[in-house]
Amino acid sequence: IFKFLGAISVDLGKDRIKPYLVTILTPLYRELNSNYAEQDPTLKNLSQEIIDLLKKLVGLEAFSLAFSSVQKQANQKRAMRKKQRALQTVANPDIAARRKLKRHKNKAETRKRKIDALRPMHKAKRHRGHALKDLAMVE
């Protein structure tokens, strides 16, 4: 898709690409600023190349305006999601508690995985239930 965006940009030319600049820059910016663990470095390089191409094609001033607009939109979305999450913790404490438990469980599993990677001979302790119902035979 990034190659397609670059090809369309070159094909349309300087004047006809300006109205679509924000639309084209949005996924490129998202890819550049993402911090996923399994991120493909070739995609990041490709998006940087296309951004450089657009910068040369449209000119620095128009590009800067469009890029700052994309950054502003992304920051607003991020702030809105953060605000919604904070409101949800107050409005629905049970959902927030479930999310917190899930996060703690994932953190513990990640810790176990790291320990296993560093010390392969070490075995993690298994969780044992402390209630009598865990010991009883359930039909």
TrEMBL record:
Residues 1-116 form the U3 small nucleolar RNA-associated protein 20 C-terminal domain. It comes from the Eukaryota. GO terms for cellular component: 90S preribosome; small-subunit processome. Pfam families: UTP20_C (PF23099). InterPro entries: SSU_processome_comp_20 (IPR052575), UTP20_C (IPR057525). PANTHER family: SMALL SUBUNIT PROCESSOME COMPONENT 20 HOMOLOG. This is UTP20 protein. It comes from Campylorhamphus procurvoides.
